[in-house]
Amino acid sequence: RVFSPAGEFREFSRRQLRDMERLFRQYDAGKDGFIDLMELKLMMEKLGAPQTHLGLKNMIKEVDEDLDSKLSFREFLLIFRKAAAGELQEDSGLHALARLSEIDVSTEGVKGAKNFFEAKAQAINEASRFEEEIKAEQEEKKKQAEELKQRKAAFKELQSTFTQ
C-alpha cells in the first residue's frame, strides 16, 4: 500500500507537509525512512526538550501503529495531527515536539470535536487549494526561469563587449 501524505492528512497544506517531511528527514540520521529511539533522543535534545529513555519510549509507543518501536513518516505526521486536535497531554514529549518544531499545525489543523464539521467543509475545498498552491509554485518557477534567462542574456551581452 502506497502512503500519500497529501491524501491522508488533508488538514495540512502542501507547504506544512513539506516542512514536516524536511524535519523528519533532518533527524532520520540512518536515512532508513524511520526515526528510531536514538534519533528521537537527538531530535528532542536539539529542540531543547530532552527526554528520559522511558519518556522517549512512551513517545514512540503513543503513535507507533505497527509496533516496530520506531517512527515512520506517517506515524510522525500523526504527532502533528494529534497536536492540532488537542489529543496530546500538555506534559507529554510529543506535545513538546509538536510545539517546539517550527511547524505551526494550529493554523489549519482540526481543533477537537467542535471544529469537526468545519474541517469536513474545508476538506471539500482541499482539491482547489492544492491546485492553487501548485499553480503558485509553477508561476514562481516560471518567474525564476525568466530571471535566469535575463541574467544569462545580460552576461552574454557584457561578455561580448570584452571579446571584441
Automatic annotation (TrEMBL):
<dbReference type="GO" id="GO:0005509">
    <property type="term" value="F:calcium ion binding"/>
</dbReference>
<feature type="coiled-coil region">
    <location>
        <begin position="120"/>
        <end position="158"/>
    </location>
</feature>
<dbReference type="Pfam" id="PF21008">
    <property type="entry name" value="AIF-1"/>
</dbReference>
<keyword id="KW-0677">Repeat</keyword>
<keyword id="KW-0106">Calcium</keyword>
<protein>
    <submittedName>
        <fullName>EFHD2 protein</fullName>
    </submittedName>
</protein>
<dbReference type="InterPro" id="IPR049025">
    <property type="entry name" value="AIF-1_EF_pair"/>
</dbReference>
<feature type="domain" description="EF-hand">
    <location>
        <begin position="15"/>
        <end position="50"/>
    </location>
</feature>
<keyword id="KW-0175">Coiled coil</keyword>
<dbReference type="InterPro" id="IPR011992">
    <property type="entry name" value="EF-hand-dom_pair"/>
</dbReference>
<feature type="domain" description="EF-hand">
    <location>
        <begin position="51"/>
        <end position="86"/>
    </location>
</feature>
<dbReference type="InterPro" id="IPR002048">
    <property type="entry name" value="EF_hand_dom"/>
</dbReference>
<dbReference type="InterPro" id="IPR040365">
    <property type="entry name" value="EFHD1/2"/>
</dbReference>
<keyword id="KW-0479">Metal-binding</keyword>
